[in-house]
């Protein structure tokens, strides 16, 4: 049972949920003591926990902010939280990660990245040399010859020195302690107080899986680490680099004059829409499908409409299909995809294939109008198809442009002058963009 004076940051009367003798209990008590020592406002503390037994800590610390994250990703979440607080909010938050050796292995690059950034996060690695919660499997921090459920004859590999990795990642505060060290409270509080990234690896016992399979007691942990060639104690405490948010502030300020102001589009034309219209444009990569959709979107904005654009293409950017979904609406749009299309424009074989692949025929209604190049055949019956010689009159590279211009001219969702203005800006005199015959369509 915790004494009341030690419960400042912990749930009053919290009972540790861990197995008897588990090192996690000590680590959390020492963390609580460190917070008490620093006398931090509980609202200025955020605990970010990982998956694993150590992740049960959230329920034990009810006075501070807690975030329970996905396996290995806690340091990534903490980095975002710390940066957001420094740049956008109070700049007071102390963000502390509680992660096991398994999680630190899974999310090693998050730790490396946070250290490289020198973000103000403290990572406490509760290292009991195995995945405790899932049954005692080997992790990368399992020492050589250590017996686990997946290394019944002893681990064949040496363990990863996470402190050395932190050092190589330019971390400013690095310590390796054991869960029963008398000065653990002091070391954790120093780490939390450190301005920039800090890491404290705490060696401890998993009494459920570790001590049952190995001749291991708490007083053997230091020797074990030394045999692995791992340094002990406070290995580094040198705040030589500016903490990330300070650097961010200086860097952003020094480039302030270079940041281009956002382009605002002021409506200067009018629209006729009473409800949202969804327009799907499908063609080939390199044939201006997505830039045509962007032009359509900009023209609609110029008419005072709300707009979304969603693009799709294969990973090979320059080949295969290219497809855009544009919604133009007199009111707010809550979802960027076209659920039921008003117009489906298909200008090439690739585009037609993709319409079938994405089952667009299931995202239409009785009134959907298909604008299709006349070289293509849509086998599905009962559709409202307008077949036009788009590729012939506009060229393959402007077939999508011609089709969109046609929709605006014929169905007038908004004033044609809006798209005409943009087309002229891009291609020159409107009447000369396409072949003469196009304008008679
Ligand atoms: S399984 Fe191991 S790590 Fe988990 S609570 Fe029990 S002793 Fe602790
Ligand atoms: Mg573990």
Radius of gyration: 31 Å
Strand portion, in percent?
15-25%
Question: What is the number of helical segments per DSSP (H or I, 4+ residues)?
Answer: 14
The rough form would be described as elongated
CATH class of the largest domain: Alpha Beta
CATH topology of the largest domain: Rossmann fold
Q: What's the helical proportion of residues? A: 25-40%
- Residue stretches low in confidence (pLDDT < 50, at least 5 long) are 1-6
The averaged pLDDT comes out at 94
Sum this structure up briefly.
With 441 residues, the chain is α/β, with parallel strands linked by helices. It contains 14 helices and 15 strands. It binds iron/sulfur cluster and magnesium ion (MG).
Tags for this model:
binds iron/sulfur cluster, single chain, disordered N terminus, 6-stranded mixed beta sheet, 441 residues, 7-stranded mixed beta sheet, alpha/beta, binds magnesium ion, Rossmann fold, Pyruvate-ferredoxin Oxidoreductase, domain 3
